[in-house]
Amino acid sequence: MQSITSSPNYLCRNPYSFCFRMKVPKDLQNTLPKKELKYSLQTGNLSTAKIKARFVAGQVQLFFRDVRKGKFIGVNLSKKQMHDMIKKFMQRTIKSYDQPALYDQHDEDIIRQSHWEERSVSDEIEDLEMIKEDLNCQLHKGDYSAVEDETDSLLSEDGIAKGSIDKGSHAYAELCTGVLSAQIMGIEYRQKRLKGNLRGDLEDLLQGCLPGSQQSKPISAQDTPREIVIEPAPEGKKISEIIPLYVDEAKINWKPKTENEVTASLNLFIEVVGDAPLQSINRAKVAEYKQVLKKLPPNKNRVKKYRGKSISELMEMPKEKTLSAERINKNLERAGQLFEFAILHGIYEGPNPASKMQVPKDKHASQKRAPYTNQELELLFKSEGYLQDTFSKHYMFWTPIIALFHGMRQNEIAGLHIEDIKETNDGILYFDDIYSRKSDPTQAYRVAPVHPFLIEELNFRKYVENIKSKGHKQLFPECKKGRDGYGKAVSNWFNSRYKEKCGIVSKDGRMRDFHSFRTTFITRLRHKKVPLRELKEVVGHSVQIDITDTYTDPYPVKQLFDQVVSLASFHKEIDLSHLKNSKYVPK
Predict the structure, then answer these.
(1) DSSP codes joined into one string, 212-274
(2) pLDDT value at position 116?
(3) Cα–Cα distance between 518 and 516 in angstroms, integer?
(4) In terms of DSSP H, where are the helices of 480-515?
(5) What is the pLDDT of residues 80-101, one digit of tens each?
(6) Alpha-carbon span 381 to 403, nearest angstrom
(7) SS (H, E, C) 518-562
(8) Maximum average pLDDT range among 60-64, 131-135, 479-483
(9) Residues 312-323, buried b or exposed e (16+ Cβ, 10 A)?
(10) CA 61 → CA 25, 235, 236, 263, 279, distances in Å?
């Protein structure tokens, strides 16, 4: 027996072809009748053998999983039952192929066939060969979809109700394999009859398709069963063993929260596919993972009604919404990165099974968040909280106002520190080096001038001084830093309670939340034809328009004040004069 260099560790070669062998795990050796599984791959081509061996390895791991879950063949279906069902199917197949004596070599009429009739026989043999090739391909791939109806019919005839046998179990797979093999044998029988050969004994034919037989595989006339003797191979590292290795190496370039997000994503992968050896995961398994992701709710570990539920329970539960295409693709991308790491380090052999698995993105996603209309802004800023000054926290009063007049993100506003509020030599107050850069040093330097309404009407400069005098470092001390930054308190308050209390509803299917302030700011200024590059610099979007932008310094604060921020005129479009009477505005 010769080992194959640079091939899967379960792939070896005998003098005639390549073959597969895997040792039964120790915890299953008392359950299964064998301590190792052996299969002939029936090919002398190395590339083909690798593909088949990887598929077989995946199927074997699924079989081991089913055994551990109690889905072993002896639980639901006996060997004798399976033998009898396949024999019955084989009898029907042979009967359907037994035609009148026109093709019997003892019938003298066959000698008197015309040339056209002989040509018809040849055509049928050729057609049958093509069908047989297709069935052989299905058998090698483990694709039983073409014979599921026949298999279910056989089970029904034997008094076994539909659904009693798990279609994902090894028992069902073995029965389907037998039915596929019986179809192949039936075609070969038919071909021999057309060529004038006598019918063989049914029991001899059955030996090639019964489960557990040495010949339970597609067989051609020239095949000769051979004993396979190869060394057992290790199963490889489990997914849970590889994740820490990958994270430990990759996290050097990650933000702190990224490590938690990646680990959570890969743990979800384990939760869905099982903690199997990584080498046993193929594209079909990743595709199954993708289908599960499509049915899961967002924040399943945070939302009370989903917390603690299994994946199967979550899939059955009614859900208001499921994971977005962006989130699904992020999970698939992270699984793919794990495989890339494993391939690079020799832990996984073969192409990345998660490559090109992403779901299409919604082309209209950017249109799903709506800017606020003036009527909606009236509802938000003339609520009880603003009119009667009942807000209990500083951020409840200030964060919506700052968001509206500056287009800043929720996390950026909530994370503002006293040191971020600076003033130019010519007296322009501005937010300096906005929060996003504190979280990610790779972000570009960015400033945003403070709008005149905050300075002149709401005495924002004095508010900053008051907070500083109390020894606070944050502009809004109630906003505590969490895994995803400082914005959680703002999000929980505004998105979950406040906007609905104000009567903000979506009748057009477009989202309206805190981020809609940013959409409102950008939309209104674009409609006023504010220079695009200056606007992007204020709101923190990529500013490159042409190659010269790469070599252009940021605009002066005064220019951004004059040409962008000061043009936001919401205080002139809706009455906001009552805001200056708040307890949060210094007198």
Answers:
(1) TSTT-S---TT---------------BHHHHHHHHHHHHGGGS-HHHHHHHHHHHHHHHHHH-
(2) 33
(3) 5
(4) 488-493, 499-501
(5) 777 777 777 777 776 666 544 3
(6) 13
(7) HHHHHHHHHHCCCCHHHHHHHHCCCCCCCHHHHHCCCCCHHHHHH
(8) 479-483
(9) eebbeeebeeeb
(10) 10, 9, 11, 24, 10
Q: Cα–Cα distance between 375 and 408 in angstroms, integer? A: 21
- Crossing angle of the two packed helices 46-68 and 170-194, in degrees rounded to 10: 140
Query: Of the given ranges (220-234, 319-333, 463-477, 529-543), which has the lowest mean pLDDT?
Result: 220-234
Three-state DSSP at 23 gives strand
The sign of the dihedral angle between the CA atoms of 169, 171, 174, 175 is negative
Token pair, residue 184, equals 């192949």
DSSP β-bridge partners for residue 38:
21
pLDDT value, residue 474:
93
pTM of the shown model: 0.48
Does 207 score more than 60 pLDDT? no
389-418: per-residue pLDDT in tens? 999 999 999 999 999 999 999 999 999 999
Q: Which of 153-157, 169-173, 346-350 has the lowest mean pLDDT?
A: 169-173
Q: Could you give the angle at which helices 283-293 and 256-273 cross, rounded to 10 degrees?
A: 110
Token pair 């190792």 is at which residue? 36
Q: Could you give the strand order of the β-sheet that contains 429-431, starting from the edge strand earlier in sequence?
A: 421-423, 429-431, 448-449
Percent of the chain with pLDDT over 70: 71
Greatest Cα-to-Cα distance within the chain, rounded to the nearest angstrom: 118
Q: How many angstroms separate the CA atoms of 380 and 375, rounded?
A: 9
Residue with tokens 């359907």: 96
**Residue 355: count of CB within 10 angstroms of its CB:** 13
pLDDT for 539 beyond 80: yes
Q: What pLDDT is attached to residue 133?
A: 72
The CA angle 234-239-245, to the nearest 5 degrees, is 100
Average pLDDT value for the chain: 77
114 against 200, higher pLDDT: 200
DSSP collapsed to 3 states, 262-315: HHHHHHHHHHHHCCCEHHHCCHHHHHHHHHHHCCCCCCCCCCCCCCCCCHHHHH
Alpha carbon distance, N-terminus to C-terminus of the chain: 91
Instruction: Evaluate whether 511 touches 499 at the Cβ level (below 8 Å).
Output: no
- Please choose, from the candidates 278, 584, 311, the residue with its C-alpha nearest in 3D space to the C-alpha of residue 459: 584
Residue 23's contacts (CB-CB under 8 Å, 6 or more residues apart) are 35, 36, 232, 233, 235
pLDDT of residue 326: 87
pLDDT for position 98: 55
The contacts of residue 190 (CB under 8 Å, 6+ apart) are 97, 128
pLDDT greater than 80 at residue 70: no
Give rounded-to-5 percent helix, strand, coil for the chain. Answer: 55, 5, 40
Residue type, 448: A
pLDDT digits (tens, 9 = 90+) for 173-186: 777 888 878 878 77
72: its two tokens: 């072993």
DSSP state, residue 418: G
What count of residues does the chain have?
Answer: 587
